Fold these 4 entries.
Entry 1:
Amino acid sequence: MELEHLRDAVIEGNVSAVSEETQRAIDAGVDPSKILNNGLIEAMEEVGRRYEEGEYFLPEMLAAAQAMKTSLAKLRPLLAAQDVKPVARVALGTVEGDLHDIGKNLVGIMLEGAGFEIVDLGADVARAEFVRIAPEVDVIGLSALTTTTMPAMATTIQALEEAGVRDGVKVIVGGAPVTQKYADDIGADGYSPDASRAVRKVRTLIGLE
Ligand code: B1M
C-alpha cells in the first residue's frame, strides 16, 4: 500500500487525515515499522527541510508534529508488540529553574519522528535527575530559554562529570539564548539552533551521519 497520502497529511498537519490514513494502512496490513519509516519519518524529514529553507514556519511545524503524534499513538502499541528497536535513547529536559518547555517538546517530537526513543524529563529538571538517567541513555538534551537559567547547563554537565557518567553520553544543548560558542565553552558535545537541526546533530553525535 502506498503511504503517500499519509506523508502528505503529516506534511500538511492534517490531524484527521493522518488518523484516517494511519488506520487505513494498519487495516491493510502494512507493517507498522514501514508506516513509521516510510510514512512518518520521511514526512517529518520533509517538514524539517521546509523549515530550514524558510518555506515553513513554527505554526506549520507544530501542526505537523501534532499530526505525527496522532499517528504515533496508534502505532506505538503495534511497534512495541513487534519489538522494533529505537535508533537510540535520548533524555530531554529543560534545565533547573526554567519552566519553558515548548521548544524542548518540539525537539522531542522531531526526534521521535526520526525514530529515537525519548525520555522526557520535563521542565525545571534538577541536575541530579540528569545524572540519574545518564547511564540509561545515549544522549542527553538540555534546553534553556532564559539567560538566567543557561548557567544550569554548565552545572549539569559538571554534575555529570563529578558523578563519573559524562563519558557514557553525548550532551546536546539548545534554546533561544544558547549559541555554539556557549556550547563549546561549557563542554557540550553539540548545539542546535532549532528542532529540525537537532535531529541531524544527534544523528551525527552518535555516528549515524
Ligand atoms: Co518566558 N521568557 N518567561 N514564558 N517566554 C522568554 C524566553 C523571553 C525571551 C521573553 C522576553 O522577555 N522577551 C524572556 C527571557 C529573557 C532572557 O532571559 N533574555 C522570558 C522571561 C523573562 C520569562 C519569565 C522570567 C517572565 C517572568 O515571570 N517575569 C518567566 C520565567 C519562568 C521560568 O522559566 N522560571 C517566563 C515564563 C513564561 C511562560 C510560563 C509564561 C511561558 C512558557 C510556557 C511553556 O513553555 N510551557 C513563556 C513563553 C511562552 C515565552 C516566549 C514568549 C516564547 C517561548 C517559546 O515557547 N518559543 C519567549 C519569548 C519569545 O521567544 N518570543 C519567552 C517557541 C519555541 C518553539 O521556541 O523555545 O526557542 P524555543 O525553541 C526552539 C529553539 O530555541 C530550539 O528548538 C526549538 C524549536 O525550533 N531549542 C532547542 C529549544 N530547546 C532546544 C534543545 C536542543 C536543541 C534545540 O537540544 C537539546
Entry 2:
Amino acid sequence: MTKRAFPPGFLWGVATSAFQIEGAPDADGRGESIWDRFAATPGRIADGSDARVACDHYRRWREDLALLRELGVNAYRFSVAWPRVLPRGRGAVNGRGLDFYDRLVDALLEAGIAPLATLYHWDLPQPLQDEGGWGSRATAEAFVAYAEAVGMRLGDRVRRWATHNEPWCIATLGHEQGEHAPGLRDPALALRAAHHVLLSHGWAVAALRRHAPAAEVGIVLNLVPAYPASPSEADRDAARAFDGFFNRWYLDPVFHGVYPADAVADRVARGHLRGPELPFVHDGDLAAIAAPTDFLGVNYYTRAILRSDAIPEAENAPRTLRAPPPEGLTDMGWEVFPAGLHDLLLRLQRDYAPASLLVAENGAAYEDPPGAAGPILEDPRRVAYLRAHLAAAHRAIAEGVPLAGYFHWSLLDNFEWGHGYTKRFGLYRVDFATQARVPRASARFYRDVIAANAIALEP
Ligand code: FCB
C-alpha cells in the first residue's frame, strides 16, 4: 500500500442541502418554495414522493451532528432555505427561520467543524416564482436582500459562503428541460434565468463581503468535462459545443466577465437568441458577475463523451455514447470516471486560475446489495468510487492545483429531486420509515482517510 498525504489543513467535509434533508415545511413560519409546489404536482417526482419529511433533519439535526463528529470531518457544507428566512421571498425577515441555522452554526463551531453555507440550493420562495422567478431581474435584487439578512445574522461566524449551487441545473433543468422546479420548457427563458442567477451571485458577493469581511466567498458550479468520442474534427466540435453550453457559459462570465462567443453563436443558430446581443445583459452586469471570489466550488460526478451525429437538441444530461461496462455506472446512469476530476481541476487552474478550489460535491448513488444488514452496511462500490476520486484529487494537488478541500455528497440518503427517494447517495443509509441512520462501510473508510489526512492506494 502506498500512502498519499493531503496538505495540512485540508478541508474534509460532507455536503447536504436544505430541501433534500430538512422536512418541516411548515415549521417556525417557513414559506412555500418552488420545490414544495413542484413535488406536490402529480407526475413530477419518480416515486410520487415529496420532501415534507425527508430526513427530518430540522428536528434531528443534533443526531446528524453526531454523525459528523463520528466521521471526524472538519468542515460541513449545508444550505440555508430562503423560504425560512423570507417566507414571501422579500420583506420581513423571519427570525425564527434564521434561529435554526444560528443554532446549527454554533454547534458546528463548538464541534470544531467549519461551516460552509450555500445561500441558494434551488428552493426559491414560491411568491417570487409567481412574479416571474429567475426570469425576472427583480429576483436577483431579492436575492441580495436575502444574502444581506443571512450575512447579518451568521456573518460573524460563518467563514465560507457559496452564493449559488449549480446555476446550470437551475437554468436548464428548471427552465429548459422542465425536470426540476419550476418545471418550465423555454430555452430562451433559461438563458435569461441563468443570467439573473449569475448577476445575483455577483451582487451577493459584495453584500456578503460587507457583513462578513473576513469570509471566503465563492460559487459552486456543476462541471462536466467533455471528451470527443473520436479525434475527428466533427467530434471535437461536438465536445466544444457541449463544453460551451454546460461549463463555459458559467465559468467565462464569473472569471472573465464575458459569455463565450462560440456558445452564444450556437444558441443563435438554434433560435434561442435572436442575435449575438444578449437582450437581458445590462451595462455593468458582466463586471458585477466577475467580482473576484475566493474559491470555486466544483461539483464533479461524471464526464460526457460527445459524437457529432448525436449532438442533442438540448443537452440535458451528460451522455455517454459508448456503453461502459454495467459496473461502471452508478444508479444515476452516470459513468464512473475519476480521471475526469483530475483533468477538470487542471483545466480550471489553467484556464481560470481561481484563488482556490473546493470539490464541493462528489459521490455516487448505489442501492445496497441485497441482504446487506447492520450494524455496518457493506457498500464496496461507493468505497471504490470515493477512493478513486480522492486519488484523482490528490494527483491534481501534486501537480499544483490549489485544491483546499473535498466535500462528499452526501452525509445521508435524501430526497434526490425528481428521483424522490429512489437514489441513495449517503455515507449513512436512512430508513425513511423509521428515520434510523445506519453507517455504510464508506463512512468508516472516509473516517479513516480523514483521520490519516491521507489515502492508502492499493498496489
Ligand atoms: C447535484 C446537486 C445535489 C444532488 C447531487 C446528486 O446536482 O447539487 O443536490 O442532487 O447532484
Entry 3:
Amino acid sequence: MLNRRNLLKSFGIAAVATTLPEISVTAKANENSVKPIVVSTWNFGIAANADAWKILNAGGRALDAVEAGAKVPEADPNNQSVGLGGLPDCDGIVSLDACIMDENGNCSSVMALENIVHAVSVARKVMERSPHVQIAGTGALQFALSQGFTKEDLLTEASRKAWEKWKSENHYEPIKQNVGHDTIGILAIDAAGNLSGACTTSGLAWKYHGRVGDSPIIGAGLFVDNEVGAACATGKGESVVKICGSHTIVELMRQGATPQAACQEAVKRIAKKQKDYRDFQVAFLAINRNGEAGAFAIQKGFQYAKTTSSGSELVNGMSLL
Ligand code: ASP
C-alpha cells in the first residue's frame, strides 16, 4: 500500500515540499501605494527622515536611505539614547547595538560595540563584507577598525555627569526599569518599491556591561520582508525579544493585518505574558508594502515621524494604557 511514509520515502524532501499547503497571504502592492516613504521612531525621527528623504527623493535605494537616516541621531551628542552621547552602562561605558536589513532579506548587526559612532554603518559592513550576520563586543570593534572606522570617545560630559549622579544614588546596581531609552528604528520604501530598515541605539541606560537589547536582534528590534512590510521596536528590549516582536508583526501583516493592528497585537502579547507591563514602555512601528504605516505602544507618548512627497509629520501612536 502506498501510505504517506512510503510516499515521502520514494519522493524525498522535494515531495514533502510539494505536499505543504500554501498558507501565506502575501500583501500585494496596489496602485495607490505610497512611495517613496520613510518612517522612524520618536520626534528625532524628523531629522533622520530628512536625510533619508534626500536619497529616496533622488531615486536612491531604501537601504542607503535608512542608513543615512540612522546616522543622524548617532552623530548628535545631545541625543542621549543613540550613538555619540548615549547614556552609558553601569560601568560608565557607552556601548551600541545596531542592525540593518535590505529588500533581499540580507541583514546584519553589531552588538555591544564601543568607541565607534556609526554602529549602523558597521552593521552594514558586516552584511556586505563579512560572511556573518552578527558580531559582538571587542570583535565588533576589531572588525570596524579593519573597515576603516575610527575610534572615538562616545561618553559626553553630560552623559558622564548623569552616570555619576545615578551611581551615587543607586549604589552601583543596574536598575531593572528602563531609563533614558529611545532607539531609532527607521523603515523605508524606495521609488522602486523596495523596503529596508535599520535600528540603532545605546540601549538601556545603566545596563549591565555587555548587555544586548532587542535592537540588534533580527526579528526582535527589526524585521523586513519585501513581500509584506517591515517593523521595528523601541523600549524595553528584554520584553521585545521575548515575543520576537518585529517578526511577529510582519507575519501578522502577511496574514492580512494592518500595520497598526499588527503592532497592537504584539503589544497585547507582551501585556498578556509579562505581568509588570505597566511599569515599562515598548512601542512598535510598522509599514506595509503599500506604504501604510501604523504604530502601537504600551504607554502613552510614543510618536513616530513620517515623510512622503507631501512632507513630514509627527504622528501620535496609540497605546494600551
Ligand atoms: N530597545 C532598546 C534596548 O532595549 C532601548 C530603547 O528603545 O530605547 O536596548
Entry 4:
Amino acid sequence: MQMPLVLDGVAIAAEIKAEVAIEAGEMIARGVRPGLAVILVGSVAASEMYVRSKVKTCGELGLFSEMLTPPESVTTDELLRMVAELNARAEIDGILIQLPLPAHVDTKRLLEAVSPEKDVDGFHPVNVGRLQSGQPGLQPCTPAGVMEMLRRREIAVAGANAVVIGRSEIVGKPMAMLLLNASATVTVCHSRTRDLARFTREADVLVAAIGRPGFVTAEMVRPGAVLIDVGINRVTDAASVQRFFPHDAGRAAAFQKRGSVVVGDIDPAAFALSSAYTPVPGGVGALTIAMLMSNTVKAAKLRRGA
Ligand code: GUN
C-alpha cells in the first residue's frame, strides 16, 4: 500500500494566510482596512491563548483588530450592549465571541445579537440557514477549513461516502452540511449511534469531532480512507502515551518534560491505513485561524460592497 498523504494544516494555513494578506493589502490600498473584534470573557487559559493567537495573526496579515476583555462577572445585558456597539461601528467587519462563555451568560441570545453580516464564526441562525440552503454566507471556520484543505489537496468528495462523528453546532452539523453541499453521501454519527464501526468502515472520508482521545481505532477504518481528525485532546497519563505512541521517542520525551501530550480523536495507528490524514497537532487545528482571517476579509468585502 502507498504511504498516506499527510494533510499539513500548517502549510495549507500559510497558503490561505498569504492569499488573505494580498486581498487585505488591496483593500487597504483603497483605504479600507478589514477589522476584527474579539470578545473574551474572564480568564480561561485556553481561550486566552486562542484569542491572543487570533489577534496576533490579524496584525501579521495587516488586519485591524480589537480585543474586548470583560470580567467573568459580566452580565448578558452588558455583553449585548457591547455587541450592539460593535455591530454599529463601521471599521469592524467581524465580531467573534470566544466560547465557551460563563454559565450565567445567555450564549444563544448573544450569538443571535451579532449582525449576520459580521458573524465571522458563522454561528448566527441566518448564516446557519444560508449554509443549509446552499446560499453564500459566512461559514464556521473549522469545518470550512476542512473543506478548503480537501479542495487544495484535490481530494474529491462528490459521490464519496462521508461519515462525520459528532453533531456539535460548531463542527459536526456544519461539517455534514458542507460535505452534503459538495455532493458527498453523508452520514452523521454521534454518542447514541448503535454499532458505530458499521458506519465508519464504509467511510471514504471520515471526520472525527467528538473530543475523545484515540476514539477511532484502526479496526474502525476502511483501508484507503481519508481521515480528518478534528480532536485536540490532552492526555496526561503514561499508559495513554504508550498506547497511542508506542514507538515515538519524541512524544515520550515531550511527555517526560511537560507531563502531557496532545492526541486527536483518531488513534494514530489508524493513520497508516489511510490514503490521506490530518496529523494532530498540525492538521485541522492549524487551519481554523486562517479561515477566521479569510472570513473577516470576506465579511469586509460583502459588507462594504468591495
Ligand atoms: N471556542 C472553541 N472553538 C471556537 C470557535 O470556533 N469559535 C469561537 N467563537 N469560540 C470557540
